[in-house]
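Bug #2210: token dump truncated for Threonine/serine exporter family protein?
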Amino acid sequence: MTAAGTDATAHDGELADRRVLTYLAVAMVATGQPVHEIDEDLSAAGRALGYPDVQVAAGPTSVTLALAGGAAATVETVRGPLRLDQAAEVRLIRQQLMIRAIDRPTALDRLTTLRGRPERYPAWLSGLAWVIASVGICLILQPGAANVALTAVGSAIALGLARLSGRFRALATLLPSVAAFLAACLVFAAAGAGLVDGALRTLLPPLAILLPGALLVTGLSEIAAGAMITGVARVGYGTVQLLLFALGILAAAALLRTPAAALTNVRVDDLGWWALPLGVLCLSVGLCLMESVRLALIPWVMVVLVAAVGCQILGQLLWGASLGGFLGATAASLGASVVELIRPQLPRLVVFLPAFWMLVPGSLGLLSVTELVIHPDGTGGGGFVVIQLALSIALGLLVGSVLARSLRRVVRSSARQNELRT
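Reproduced locally. Full output below:
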């Protein structure tokens, strides 16, 4: 082969590697992984493929990647989020690339066709799972019989709107306000008729799946880790989404002439101790069915979720919501990494995200924003609760990530020493 032919072959190989790593980075962004973790994972994958100086700039909407500083770069757009089963496939592809278990064309084909993978469960079951997950959140946050019934109806309304928004762009833009308005009309009308107490807090479960809680905390963790541009963008977008939800609630309150005294953060607890474990079970099963997760993974999801909820409750009892959020996030991050060490074939992200969503910082943020608008003098008590809670959860995620990284190094070092001894 001539020198020109050799150079052309090498160029084609580098181009293929760059495309594979770029599409891998795009898929990782779409799973909701923080960009500073994506940078670490892509660097490790690049070293495994023979590129020790991979340059990647990942953001919420696009990825730019080069195989070395000053080299040609590829830019690719991120097209919306992936389900948890698709996130598990992304993790598997990365692992197989690093150990050369699959070639470049196969990896690229699997990454480019990932979004076309059908859901594991029928549409009616995933819709029912949405309602089940919302009911689970209600059993944890506002455990009252009437509140649970309203949550089931309100979450069905939110589900219908979410599915319609996939067909109509205008509805997709206004989805937070429209969903919040309709759910608030339902809850406020019931409260006005004396059928339910704690109206404002009852609004959270039907809307919780749509709320940008994970987005806000991910953004704050990125800012803390130094990914300033992406972190600020996520926090800004999430804050605007919260304001749109609050606008819908306030419009419903004005339409139904709901008194401000009814829009306070009041907790109902009529069902007893069993509501919490039942809520955790409903939330785990509901989220797994919604996200097409294999049923065999549900026990592991529940282990991490129970650990996060237990630590969150412990922290709330010891100090308050901020310590609860910190301990819950630390337990979720560290627990997911421990599960991955025990069962390497289980992707950390799949068992971590349901517990992360359970912390619902966006829900409490919605309470704070709504109360701040209703009581601008500060008498509502909302104020900066969302900032405190989101920061505590972001710090917990960082601490859990550092502890998990240290634990992985210890396990790998022990494994290498055992191999040397044998």
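Output looks complete on our side. Residues 123-410 form one domain. Marking as cannot-reproduce; reopen if the truncation happens again.
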